[in-house]
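Subject: Protein record for review, amino acid sequence with backbone structure tokens
Concerning: The relation between a protein's sequence and the shape of its backbone.
How to read it: Take the token row as a discrete description of the fold.
Enclosed: The protein record, placed directly beneath this head.
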Amino acid sequence: MSIYTALRAGVSGLSANSSALAVISDNIANVNTVGYKRSGVDFSALVNAQNSNTTYNAGGVLPLTRQQISLQGSLEQSRSTTDFAVSGDGFFVVGSNNQQLSNGGTVLFTRAGSFTIDADGFMVNAQGLFLQGWPVNNNGTVTSSPTSLSSVEPVNISGVGGLAEPTANVSMNANLNSAQAVYAGAPAYSSGSLAAGTITPHFESTIEVYDSLGAPRSIAFGFLKTGPNTWAVESYSRPSGSITGGAGTGGFLTSGAVTFATDGTVQSVAGGIASAITVPWASSTGAAAQPITVDLTAGMTQFANSFGVTSVTADGVPPGDLVGLVMEGDGFLTAQFSNGRARALYQIPLATFLNPNGLNAAEGGAFSTTLDSGLYTMNASNAGGAGRIVSGALEASNVDLATEFTNLITTQRAYSAASRIITTADQMLEELLMIKR
């Protein structure tokens, strides 16, 4: 009977608009939720088979909920360098716990990038999900895979420290006074005389270097004019006892000679000073023997000017402490240390899907794969259409309040109209029942 089908159609209208109201309410409640993706309701008409052209059987309506995951929210600036946002279609790969995903951990995908470091050194977002990354090997390479979960691991920075780097190269820019008289005193110059102190150098400069343990050490360079354009050069440690056997030799390391051209520039460097110096640090220091290459060819001059050092360049750094984390544009999570060095720890992958709107909503604003979404593909930032990772920013909810309030009004009116269908059908049935009376 058509009245009964109209009654059922009104009931389906109430149910459909109730679902729509629930979806709208969820959207409005999460307007400030980082990375939230709004949902919408589409209505589909249910059609009953018609027995004749003179009567009509109402079918009603069926609500179909859909997610607008592919619609990106606006990026908002954040004060934290560990807040990340994705400008593009990619998702952060996260896990529900700190276990390796290939060992039974649950893989999820999210756009909520409000990450912090927990007490165990793991990087987790505000929803408690653990960020996954490709670890960077000691040689700077990354073992990545677009589909293998065994190549990613939870990002953990506990125990990360700046390694000491021993000095390997030293260069000096200095001027040797051309007006200095050639040494002709007694005793006659011989290799090691400047280090031992039997002859006072015409000019001496001390350079700080770092040994293999990162401890600062001092190496002195003494210059003695032995010819019109020739200077004897010696290198020696200070104090002399800091090297093996140095106490009896004044810490002597090596010697050589620098010859200048008539224009005051270096013509040649000869002797041991022209090759790498091997510094045999005393065993009491605990440091390994250290080769250091000294460059005296580029910056040394002999002009009619006073002795002086313009600049000294020496590599190597002492040990450092972790002072910050920075996300580079290519997705590398880089640690910065107090010694001025930086080291890449992880490359953060971004997952993409053929149909992101087919993902299934999971805990903490994350998503899991379904048959509709298809399998994930993990790519580096700025690769494979995944977009790029922006540091110091968060993706806001893609909810538009004006749209939601408009939908709220139309849903309310549609619900009221469906209730009137039921009221009217009830009145008609009552009239039918009155016929018998």
User: Anything to note?
Assistant: The helical segments are 2-29, 193-196, 401-434. The first strand starts at residue 39 and ends at 45.
